[in-house]
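To fix ideas, we quote verbatim one protein's residues and fold tokens.
>
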Amino acid sequence: MPSTSYLAKQMIVMRRDLKMRKGKIAAQAGHACVEAVLMALAREGRGADLRASDGWAWIEHAEDDVTPL
């Protein structure tokens, strides 16, 4: 594994002309952020099974309406 130390910055740009709600924009930006980190780790050979080995939980579910608990 490479032992390169560096600082990274990230900028996520969202298009306004897509007419998405603020929550949808935030969700899409969050997904883009996580994917960029995973891609960077994979490039360094550190992210092959990161999701499973670090106990990350991915919940993929959609609701038409939110019901309070």
About this structure: The longest helix spans residues 22-43. Helices lie at 22-43, 50-53. The mean pLDDT is 73.
